[in-house]
Amino acid sequence: MSANAFVHPDEIRSMFSSAMSDMYRAEVPQYGTLMELVSDINRQKLSADPELRDGLAHNDELGRIDLERHGAIRLGKPEELFNMRRLFAVMGMHPVGYYDLSVAGVPVHSTAFRPIDDEALRRNPFRVFTSLLRLELIEDEGLRTEAEAILAEREIFTPDALKLIYLAEKNGGLDRIQAEQFVAEALETFRWHSDATVSLETYQKLHDAHRLIADVVCFKGPHINHLTPRTLDIDAVQRDMPKRGISPKAIVEGPPTRNCPILLRQTSFKALEEQVYFVGGSAKGTAGTHTARFGEIEQRGIALTAEGRKLYDTLLASVRHAVQVSAGGSNARDYETELAERFAAFPDDYETLRVEKLAFFRYSVTKAGRNAVENVDLEASVNDLVDQGYLRADPIIYEDFLPVSAAGIFQSNLGSDEQKNYAEQSNQDVFEQCLGAPVADELALYAAHEKASLEAALETLGVQKNVA
Ligand code: OOG
Ligand code: NI
C-alpha cells in the first residue's frame, strides 16, 4: 500500500466507533459497567448455547459481537443535519429510514446513519440514530425565536473537520494521516460540554417547553447521549443491572422474548444528573444540573417484511392499549404478561416466517445442493428446494430502529410526565430537504438483499426462475 492510499470508509468507521466508545466510557463510567455486564452475559450465553454459537459462526458474526453498537445525537438546525450527513458519509454511513417521533410527544424527526451493504455491516455495523429538533413545534413564538437565535450562533463542527470532509468529497477518500486527524476532529462534535451557552433562566424556560428542547438548544454541540452494545440475552442484562448498581428503565421495548427473535429489543439505564454551568453569576457561571446521558443495550432479530411489520405493529398497539406502563413502572409485569400473550399470534419458527413471507431470509446453496446440481428438478419451487435440502435460508438481521421503542427510550430519559401531543404532521419532505438527500427505504434494502441471494443460489443450482 502506498503512503497516500485511501483508508477504507469501513475502517474509518471502526476507528471512529472505537474512539467514541473510549470517550464515552471515560465520560460516563456507568457505561463501562454496563459493557462489562453485557460481555459477561454474552460469554455465558455462548457457552450455554452451542447452537447459537454455531449459527453466529456460520454467518461470520462471532467476531462482531462485542463491536455491535449504536449511538444517538440530537441536532438543532438544518445545516447541522446537512453537514452531519457529509461527515458520516466519510465513514460509509448513509441515512436509512424516516422516524417521526412527534406522534409520541417528542418534538423531533430522525433517521439512522448506517452502513448499507452486507460486507460493510459485517465489518462494523455502527450506526447513529440522528434526530433533528422541530422548532416549529414550540408553541410560544417568542421562545421559538429565542431558541432559533441561540442555535444560529453555534457551529458544531471544527474548521478542520469541515476541511477534511471537503477533502474526502473532492478526492474520493482520506489517506491514513488525514483519516486519523478526521476521527480526532469529528470526535470533538460529540463531546460533552459542561458549560451551557445560555443563562439558567433561559435554560429553564426552554426546559419548561420541553426538556428535550433545552438539551438541544443550550449546549455547544450534540453530545452523544448514549452508546449501545449488543447483548445475546437482553432479559438477563435487564435482570442483572441493579446487581451492578445500574437502574434500568421499567420495561424492555419491542417484541417479547421468543425462540426466533424478530426486529429489535432495547432497554436502557436512566439518564444521569450531571453538573453543568450556566452563563452569568460568578466567573465560572451558575452551577446547575442537566440530565441527558444514559446507556442502552440492544438485541436484534430477523427483519420483517411489510406484512410481518403490520402484524407486529397491530399486536404491539393492542398491548399498549391494554396496559399503559405507569411512570414508576409498578405494572411492568402486567405489560410483559400482556405482551407475551398477545404475541403468541406471531409465528415463532423460521420456517413459518419464511413460507408466510413475514420475514426476510438470505438464501444459499447447501453442500447437498452443490452435489445434486445435475439432478435438480427444474420445475421445483423455492420451498421444494428448501425441503429437499438444496437451499438453505438464514435470517437477515434487522439493522434499523423502531419508532415506538425509540419514543419509549426518549421518554424514560426525559421523565414520563413529559408526554405532549403535537398536532403537526410528520414531514419527511422537510427532513430530506434539511438533510440534502433522500433517506433510503429500509424495507427495499432487505428485499433487494433477499432477492439477490436467492437469484445467485438458483443460478448455482441451474434453476431459472423469476424471483418476485
Ligand atoms: C434517541 C432515542 C432512540 C433508539 O435506540 O431507539 C434510540 C435519543 O434519545 O436521542 O436511540
Ligand atoms: Ni438507542
TrEMBL record:
Keyword Iron set for record: yes
InterPro entries: HGLS (IPR009770), YdcJ_bac-like (IPR047869)
Cofactor entry: Fe(2+)
One MF annotation (Gene Ontology) recorded for this entry: dioxygenase activity
Iron is among the record's keywords: yes
Superkingdom of origin organism: Bacteria
UniProt-listed Enzyme Commission number(s): 1.13.11.93
Keywords: Dioxygenase, Iron, Oxidoreductase
UniProt family annotation: Belongs to the 2-oxoadipate dioxygenase/decarboxylase family.
Protein name: 2-oxoadipate dioxygenase/decarboxylase
Taxonomic path: Bacteria, Pseudomonadati, Pseudomonadota, Alphaproteobacteria, Rhodospirillales
